[in-house]
Specification:
The chain has 245 residues and is of the alpha+beta class. It folds into 2 domains: 10-99, Phosphorylase Kinase, domain 1 (2-Layer Sandwich), CATH 3.30.200; 104-233, Transferase(Phosphotransferase), domain 1 (Orthogonal Bundle), CATH 1.10.510. It contains 7 helices and 11 strands. The chain has helices spanning 56-74, 106-113, 117-122, 126-139, 193-196, 203-222, 227-233, and strands at residues 10-13, 22-29, 34-40, 43-51, 83-90, 93-99, 104-105, 142-143, 152-155, 158-161, 168-169. It has a 6-stranded mixed sheet, with helices on one face. It has a 3-stranded antiparallel sheet with strand order 7-9-10. A two-stranded antiparallel sheet has the order 8-11. Helix 4 packs antiparallel against helix 6. The longest helix has 20 residues, at 203-222. The termini are far apart.
């Protein structure tokens, strides 16, 4: 069997006992599946498990979309992006293994930083980290398309972009916010105005979303007690939105 080295690999298993990754604990939901902590040979990883559709045609479309994320992750090497390790298929579950296993996400860190000075002081270094990470993505021909605090991981005092299942290659064209066979990938709170209105989006949509995240980071860093006030001012009749304010 192949080993999980820097290049990554894919395996298909017919029995649960063949799977070398042992579940440690459930973490939560990602954009397209359940996320948990697993270990292999004493090392911890994050695993996203996606339940495949029952309908054959829908399943094939879904697998193509998953493979798009895998192909994107496989080619990325940057200290502020998660690293692809491996994938495997077991029955109706498609698993993606990534490294590192995060300590928390940025959303949880911002909440903690409101009460704790040490967590708040870490934020000041992360503006450059995230700018460099997004710059690398764009230079690689990739749009993230769903930047938000919960899709930014915190590990050992630094930050990493994660969750690329809705990323898209090619800098030379914009992409409609609604495409046949795929969901409209956006989080209303942080999406750009053109995305909110259903128009095509380019690199500027990522930049707007990161700017919205930066505003929340800056608010917590400079005046932590006002984050909820900021979010309440952005509240619309339906949801919180930077694009509409």
């Amino acid at each position: 069997m192949a080993t999980d080295n820097n290049t990554g690999f894919h395996q298909e298993y017919t029995e649960a006992k063949q799977i070398p990754y042992i579940q440690v604990q459930y973490i939560g939901f990602g954009a397209a599946g359940v996320v948990d902590e697993v270990r292999k040979e004493g090392r911890a990883y994050a695993r996203k498990i996606i339940t495949l559709e029952r309908d054959r045609q829908d399943r094939e479309v879904q697998i193509r979309q998953i493979e798009q994320e895998v192909n994107i992750l496989r080619g990325l090497q940057h200290k502020h992006l998660v690293r692809f390790v491996a994938t495997y298929l077991f029955r109706s579950n498609y698993a993606i293994i990534v490294d590192p296993l995060a300590d928390r996400n940025l959303e949880d860190h911002l909440k903690d930083a409101i009460q704790h000075d040490e967590a708040r002081e870490q934020i000041s270094a992360w503006f450059r980290c995230l700018t460099n990470g997004l710059g690398y993505l764009h230079e690689s021909g990739i749009r993230h398309r769903d930047i938000k605090p919960s899709n930014i991981l915190v590990k050992d005092g630094t930050v990493l972009f994660a969750d690329f299942n809705i990323s898209t290659r090619s800098l030379k064209r914009t992409v409609p916010t609604t495409m046949v066979g795929r969901p409209r990938a956006r989080t209303p709170e942080y999406c750009a105005p053109e995305v909110e209105e259903g128009h095509t989006r380019g690199l500027s949509a990522d930049i707007f979303s990161l700017g919205a995240v930066f505003l929340e980071m800056l608010t917590v860093y400079s005046n932590p007690g006002t984050l909820e006030e900021l979010r309440s001012r952005l509240q619309t009749d339906v949801s919180r939105s930077f694009a509409k304010n």
